[in-house]
């Protein structure tokens, strides 16, 4: 440790840290543009100048290491003059367009120009103009504002893993852009907007929409993938105008995937905003009392074994427990939450969660990926894997389609089941890598369990983990990667049929679909279908009664991410029209059906959640080891030779909200061919 004195305050900091970090440890704010805590040091803006005793000139604190006994001055006359000079140079070519800049009001350049700059300019020559660059349908560029801090270049290269941004020309002619004009091929491009300290990179969908001080800000959780990204929802006049990430070092650091960030326009399109009932084969709008009356008329007196319920991938825990309680009161055990048909063993929680934890990836020293594409299924989690790969000493083996661009180097092991069986038998070259590791981990994609031999694949993956030091008392290296934010909670709540049962069978006469988009051909002819959800797709068209529910931005709700972390989202806007929160709809239906559920408030529902499973009594994720090595049901030797298929569909239109989004439709048009090409290479 080194002892450093900053403006008379003595602090002790680790050897090798920068002077800037030492100043912050002493509580001193140091202005900066190019420096970012999660990126490499560039040292090219010079805004972080400080004075060091006996140094002949100011130093760039972000790139200068501390030394024991160093004395630093952050507000001397030399420092003030230096920062004013730097700011004057930065503003030489900067356009005076703050009134029309979308960064206005939350711009680092504005704030630091006021705090550290001069109140006048001595520059009389003409300003330089730079042509705007095309970076895709999500990021808008006004490159004349660029101050060449290179944050975007370093983010694209180091975090996103797509080195498509860089500088061309030199000196006054230097420009930042893609070397060949093209859309950025990353699912994390929206983070460029967040890290840009000026208005050079802004949100194209949000352009000229509002000012930040007009917005109401609500903390919530992104459920469009299973990472559980912490977000802030910005609204005005009852409409979501933008979604931004919040910092959570254990989950998403400060990054966010593009689909969750930009698909919010789908929240106001194709919405179910009133109850509907089918009369003479046609759906017509109706009242809540008539819709619930029709449900009661059909379900009353129907034996429980002829009633089924299915929940979808974006449903909150409160609605799930309410529907399960209602089905139990009706005598039905025909429940299902695995809409994709994944063969998941829910008898133990560590069979279906990401047990290492997302932050735990940084502690691992080897990785085997089986049948997953983290880049498209969980882009933020994939960035964490890349971060660990860059740190070194982290071999990655990939079992799946050849040529997938995962944004980091990996050893392709094979395409399918034959390779997995070889890994189970210890006959593959990658077995030696896993045996040599002290904390190896395995990521199994949920998509791999959709196959007919899904149970065998789950058992085989667990066996690989058990045989290669992944299941230790203080380390659990077996991880199942889910794809959406509502897929773990129903497993925690046991929303599953009894062994050998099924929610949809030929004997089913009434089916309750809670946000579930299923193959309508699987629904028995003549079955009475209740669809409850926020977007109307094929399942809603098949329904006899439609009950309009609330999307994830429109309710206080509990979500569980892929690692089993319990998190709460908050209501940012009210549901449109006559739509209501899902658990309240089910509670109202229970009263009409004569089986009144014993809770009337959100607090009472959450108490019922904690009663159903103690994990809901706490918040967050507790890393744990594996004390029970017995594996899930399934014959590891029964894995078929077929190759693991890539994730079906487009990343940009993976669920109902993004399928309704015009922004995501444009991304699918722009990036669709690129994704197909990446999968084929």
TrEMBL record:
Record has Kinase as a keyword: no
Listed cofactors: [4Fe-4S] cluster; [2Fe-2S] cluster
EC number(s) stated in the UniProt entry for this protein: 7.1.1.-
Cofactor descriptive note: Binds 1 [2Fe-2S] cluster per subunit.
4Fe-4S Mo/W bis-MGD-type domain location: 215-271
Gene Ontology molecular functions: 2 iron, 2 sulfur cluster binding; 4 iron, 4 sulfur cluster binding; metal ion binding; NADH dehydrogenase (ubiquinone) activity; oxidoreductase activity, acting on NAD(P)H; quinone binding
Record keywords, A-Z: 2Fe-2S, 4Fe-4S, Iron, Iron-sulfur, Metal-binding, NAD, Oxidoreductase, Quinone, Translocase
GO biological process, one term: ATP synthesis coupled electron transport
Top EC category: translocase
Protein origin, superkingdom: Bacteria
Alphabetical list of InterPro entries matching this protein: 2Fe-2S_ferredoxin-like_sf, 2Fe-2S_ferredoxin-type, Mopterin_OxRdtase, Mopterin_OxRdtase_4Fe-4S_dom, NADH_UbQ_OxRdtase_75kDa_su_CS, NADH_UbQ_OxRdtase_ferredoxin, NADH_UbQ_OxRdtase_Gsu, NADH_UbQ_OxRdtase_Gsu_4Fe4S-bd
Record's catalysed reaction(s): a quinone + NADH + 5 H(+)(in) = a quinol + NAD(+) + 4 H(+)(out)
Domain 2Fe-2S ferredoxin-type stretches: 2-78
Residue intervals of the 4Fe-4S His(Cys)3-ligated-type domain: 78-117
Gene3D superfamilies, per database record: 3.10.20.740, 3.30.200.210, 3.30.70.20, 3.40.50.740
One GO CC term, this protein: membrane
Role played: NDH-1 shuttles electrons from NADH, via FMN and iron-sulfur (Fe-S) centers, to quinones in the respiratory chain. Couples the redox reaction to proton translocation (for every two electrons transferred, four hydrogen ions are translocated across the cytoplasmic membrane), and thus conserves the redox energy in a proton gradient.
Family affiliation: Belongs to the complex I 75 kDa subunit family.
Name of the protein this chain belongs to: NADH-quinone oxidoreductase
